[in-house]
Amino acid sequence: MNIAVIGTGYVGLVSGVCFSDLGNHVTCVDKLKEKVEMLQQGEVPIYEPGLKELIEKNSSAGRLKFTTDLPSAVKDADIVIMAVGTPSLPNGEADLSYIMEAAKEVAAAVNSYKVIVTKSTVPVGTNEKIGNLIRSYTTESFDIASVPEFLREGSAIRDTLNPDRIVIGTESQLAQDMLVKLHGPLTDNIIFTDVRSAEMIKYASNAFLATKISFINEIANICEKVGADVTRVAEGMGYDKRIGSSFLKAGIGYGGSCFPKDTQALIQIAGHVDYDFKLLKSVVDVNNDQRYNVIRKLESILEDLSGKTIAIWGLAFKPETDDVRDAPAFEIITSLLQRGAKVKAYDPIATANFKKIFDHPDVKYCKVAEEAAHDADALCVLTEWREFQEISLHDIQSWLKTPILIDGRNIFTEQELADTEFAYYSVGRPSMNKGVREQSPILSF
Ligand code: UDX
Q: Most buried one in 66, 213, 254, 330, CB count within 10 A?
């Protein structure tokens, strides 16, 4: 089939490349000329394992093209996939201006029957609005469909090629058949719904995963006070099939391009129909506060952070990505600076992206992990990069001025810590706290 993908962000680019790998002819469209030129030369604007190789393979096979020429791509396509950004407006609502603009341009180019699919995450009812808008611009026949995307950054290709499910929301049998033909090679587990339910599935899924994370983070906070170990608690809970073991890793909270934006958007969607989504509001509050535990723990050991040098390992919102959108590191570093500390920061690949947004005289960006830790008063691990897990704690101890380690992602084990002198704080594992004032809690009921 001939596919046009509008928008070469994470979702658009990865989906387009994967559909071409399945043997379809895919044209990826973007307004940004420089980005398109980069992609035409085989350069990839984002870091995503395996993506560059797949672009090279399918471009040289003639199945994958990049262009700024939206009308030509749409005219040649059987299926048009819209995957442009829907960022947050200041009030938390999704900004639909890009997708509506794209829909107008698609409408102007439609020359024969097309299935027009939205993969961007959009509020319930948006696909219908898109349909009405396109109908007001063209008399050609078309159908709309919502096919939300569930890929994760860092494992985007694996997730796209091996999805847990594909959700197809459309009212048209022809569109459904064409979309089954496109997605059929990926999975047998295809769910057919109406358009509005498909739109809701995406928000509900992300909100539920965010809820799991905030839930386990609160359990971790309680574990710290009652002397239980959250990793064992999560393991014990996870064996219950009704709960499941994933997304129960306690840490400093979720970030990234989806969870923060989509939880806020769902709260707004509910608000528009006079529903107060209290649970999700709490999930967001818990998440916003969780990152400050790093500061609270540092202060419980160092007391005054003024004049101290704090090393930060990890600027990306999670490992295997250079994406820093809504990364907890922003608030943590801002808080450190507000308290008069200096920061030395290192990330294996996200430093350049972080520095573009956060350039400050008291933040030194380092080229290697050791440089950041060298002579620092404490080290905070904010992203669980494998590279950090592979560094010996003895080396880290020898680099730091004082052996203070705040492990925001629980990457170190009891054995690794055993013969070190660290004052160590992780998340929800009080039995591993070493050399800190607050030892085993005393419970009184
Ligand atoms: C997420 C969804 O998983 C994906 O389905 C959707 O399409 C986009 O949003 P992504 O943001 O790429 O994907 O990353 P994900 O692996 O889901 O992690 C999101 C955040 O949650 C990260 O900050 C991560 O550190 C955090 N997280 C995840 C936890 O703190 N604990 C966990 O157990 C899992």
A: 254
Burial class (CB in 10 A: 0-12, 13-18, 19+), 100: middle
> What sign does the dihedral 172-177-183-187 (CA atoms) show?
positive
- Report the share of the chain in percent with pLDDT over 70: 98
Residue 440 domain-assigned (yes or no): no
Binding residues: 30, 35, 86, 121, 150-153, 202, 247-251, 255, 261, 318, 325
Q: Are residues 273 and 311 in the same domain?
A: no
Determine the atom of ligand 1 nearest the C-alpha atom of 384. Answer: 25
Residue 380: active-site member: no
Catalytic residue among 18, 28, 223, 258: 258
Q: How confident is the model over 191-204, as pLDDT tens digits?
A: 999 999 999 999 99
Q: Which of 249, 273, 288 corresponds to the end of one domain?
A: 288
CATH of the domain at 47: 3.40.50.720
Write down which residue in 253, 288, 323 finishes a domain: 288
Rg (alpha carbons) of the chain, rounded to whole number: 24
pLDDT in tens, 68-113: 999 999 999 999 999 999 988 999 888 999 999 999 999 999 999 9
Print the domain residue range for 212: 202-288
